Amino acid sequence: MSAREANIYDRYTAGARVNHWANAIIMICLALSGLSLFHPATFFLSDLFGGGQWTRIIHPWLGIAGTLTFLGLFVRFVRFNLWNRDDNAWMGSIRHVLSGEEEKVPEVGKYNAGQKIVFWVLSILIVLLITSGLALWDSMFREYTTIDQKRLAAVVHAAAALGLIMTVIVHVYAAIWVRGTVRAMTRGSVTGGWAWRHHRKWLREEAARQR
Ligand code: HEM
């Protein structure tokens, strides 16, 4: 049976899904280990990583792995996240999106403007996190930065991490809120009804391509 007859459309390859979930797991471990290093009240989280010393050792390596896996997502998806005129129209009707009156919202391609904003905010925050993180990685690069630069890096790192945690919460909430979205990243496919409702322009293109 063709995808069109089954009314199911491919959205993510297996490679993209493995890349996404590897990144998501690493990012959650990064947030938990980072929080444990941030404040005594959350130090108990370091037990998850074998105690304080192990957490301090592991966290920067997780940062490298998180950056590389995000880079994989960036390369895969950047072309679908470029801003265009449709996105201005979507932003203009944001009140209809929030009130669930999606039939009043202009047709959307693979991603809507909200998803694109999340994509770019994540990208910027990850650049800030990796650069400030390297400046703070004394066991590797102590001599490359001054004390003042390390102080600045500590503030940037904590602020960007808070931003990343909040952005990921928004991302997960949106994925669950828009029913039928999570299966895109678990099974790799979506129903025609979901695509018609939320990404009609993308559906038209896919219906022609996946026939
Ligand atoms: C941990 C729970 C997470 C869940 C349940 C989740 C769920 C999803 C789902 C369902 C999609 C597909 C959306 C669609 O096709 O319309 C998606 C896409 C995506 N996710 Fe996640 N995600 C999670 C964590 C993360 C994390 C931690 C990151 C990165 C920091 C991330 C980055 C992305 C990116 C870049 C995309 C592609 C969207 C785009 O390019 O605009 N996700 N996610």
In CATH terms, what is the fold-level topology?
Fumarate Reductase Cytochrome B subunit
**Percent of residues in β-strands:** under 5%
The average pLDDT score comes to: 95
Q: Tell me which oligomeric state these chains represent.
A: single chain
Structure classification: mainly alpha
By CATH, the superfamily comes out as Transmembrane di-heme cytochromes, Chain C
Strand order of the largest sheet: 1-2
Please tell me how large the radius of gyration is. Answer: 20 Å
Largest sheet: 2 strands, antiparallel
Annotation, overall tally of beta strands: 2
Number of domains: 1
CATH classification class: Mainly Alpha
Give the distinct bound molecules.
protoporphyrin IX containing FE
Determine the number of helices (DSSP H or I, runs of at least 4 residues): 11
Characterise this structure.
This protein has 211 residues and is mainly alpha-helical. The protein has a single domain (3-209), classed as Fumarate Reductase Cytochrome B subunit, CATH 1.20.950.20. The protein has 11 helices and 2 strands. It has helices at 3-6, 14-38, 52-77, 85-92, 94-98, 113-136, 138-141, 147-177, 182-186, 192-198, 200-209, and strands at residues 8-10, 189-191. A two-stranded antiparallel sheet has the order 1-2. Helix 2 packs antiparallel against helix 3 (52-77), helix 3 (52-77) packs across helix 6 (113-136) and helix 10 crosses helix 11 (200-209). The longest helix is centred in the C-terminal third of the chain and has 31 residues, at 147-177. The radius of gyration is 20 Å and the shape is elongated. The N and C termini lie close together (10 Å). The mean pLDDT is 95. Residues 11, 20, 23-24, 27, 70, 73, 77, 80-81, 111, 115, 119, 122, 168, 171-172, 175, 181-182, 184-185 line the site of protoporphyrin IX containing FE.
